[in-house]
Specification:
Blueprint lengths: L3 E4 L11 H7 L3 H11 L2 H8 L4 H11 L4 H9 L10 H12 L4 E5 L3 H10 L8 E4 H4 L6 H11 L6 E5 L2 H9 L3 E4 L6 H7 L5
Parallel strand pairs: 1-2, 1-4, 2-3, 4-5
Helix pairs in contact: 4-5
Length: 201
């Protein structure tokens, strides 16, 4: 029986979009797309989520693209411009669930330092019953190991957990382990979908 909610963080509880910063730094759409394709591709950022230090990450890219050093360093230096606000409807769901005594956890791909800073900005991110942060574990969703670590650490069973994430790959990995799942899109009425699973929120 489902009893536990498990949240992703980025684009489930807070809005995250690197384009928000780089639209200002690289106004031309084609040049910006090329920058994210060739210079700071998604896999580069994922390694910080796995625990690689930012200084090492920046040095590796700047050695390859020294003329882009300022733009490369901006990713970390101005990181908070990529996270403009909480997703209020989904935060209300989290807060309502906690008020009703529903266990609430999180599994997030996040660099350690930016997550600590984000918790300071958004205190609701400190109120989970438990949280697994990828950088601290050197494990990334959708690796099944990060879900297994969560279950073992907090004494939960997959069959009692509803996992919510904006990544189809992460949702599929959780579902394969027996979690109930919701793929969260910008238009998702998350509270309604959680209620459809039987939670009173």
């Amino acid at each position: 029986m489902l009893s536990t909610l498990v949240f992703d963080v980025g684009n489930v509880l807070i809005h995250w979009d690197p384009d928000l910063l780089y639209r200002r730094l690289i106004p031309d759409p084609a040049a910006r797309a090329a920058f994210f394709r060739d210079i700071l591709p998604p896999d580069w950022n994922r390694e910080q989520d796995r625990g690689r230090p930012w200084a090492e990450a920046e040095a590796e890219r700047i050695a390859l693209f020294p003329e882009k050093a300022e733009l490369i360093r901006a990713f970390r230096a101005e990181w908070h411009d990529m996270v403009p606000h909480a997703l209020d409807r989904n935060v209300r769901l989290l807060e309502t669930a906690r008020e009703k005594g529903i266990p609430c956890y999180a599994i997030t791909n996040f660099a350690a330092d930016t997550f600590a800073e984000t918790q300071e900005r958004f205190p609701f991110l400190t109120a989970f019953d438990g949280i697994v942060v990828s950088a601290a574990e050197q494990l990334l969703k959708p690796d099944p190991a990060i879900f297994t670590l969560f279950l073992d650490r907090y004494g939960r069973r997959a069959e009692e957990c509803l996992f919510m994430d904006d990544s189809a790959a992460n949702v599929a990995a959780a579902a394969a382990l027996g979690f109930a799942t919701i793929l969260v899109m910008p238009e998702t009425d998350l509270a309604a979908e959680v209620r459809a699973y039987g939670f009173r929120v």
